[in-house]
Fold this sequence. Notes:
Helices cover about 45% and strands about 10% of the residues. By secondary structure, the protein is α/β, with parallel strands linked by helices. It has a 6-stranded parallel β-sheet with strand order 3-2-1-4-5-6, sandwiched between helices. α1 (about 15-30) packs across α4 (about 60-75), α3 (about 50-55) crosses α4 (about 60-75) and α8 runs parallel beside α9.
Amino acid sequence: xxxxxxxxxxxxxxxxHMIVAAMERAFTAVNLQPPxxxxxLSIVGRSLHEAMADLTDAEHPIEDxxxxxxxxxxxxxxNPDYHEPxxxxxxxxxxxxxxxxxxxxxxxxxxxxxxVDALLELHDLQDRFVTIQTSDNSPSKPxxxxxxxxxxxxxxxxxxxxxxxxTSFDMQMARNASITALGVTWGYHDQPALKQAGASHLFDSFxxxxxxxxxxxxx
Length: 219
């Protein structure tokens, strides 16, 4: 058996418009100037409290900002102008891997469990992932706790586990857990950052990633 873990934001789903809009609302709620779009997207992947701390400092009301962000994100999810589409080829890749008898799929993300559940329901993927690790009960990436919990839940070993993500935080987390790290280039960190953080391979499309994974599994 092999375990393949996916990050969410920037890897499976393009949620940048919602993330930026929710962050702008969170900063405005406490009368602070919102960060630039680029700055906000640079911290995607971190758990929300740590992301807020990275964008501000300890003197700012981080708890209030986190609450405002979560409220705004929930509201935006019901706004037809904002949505979280899957990247092209993502669902085909997941379905192809889920059809393999020797593969288990999981998620390791800085999103909340509520956010992940809403996303999976939206795209009809509720039963594809056997382990889902979120910021609700894990330290922020690049701490390897999410990986360790996924291994404990599935009973598999690090040597047969792969993480797919779009940020250096994902790659560092995989390296810290001694698992394989695969980077995707359509997300929020650039190729040099992914390689420097430990990505063993980089992929420019989901079909390329799917073919690589299936070839490795069946080869």
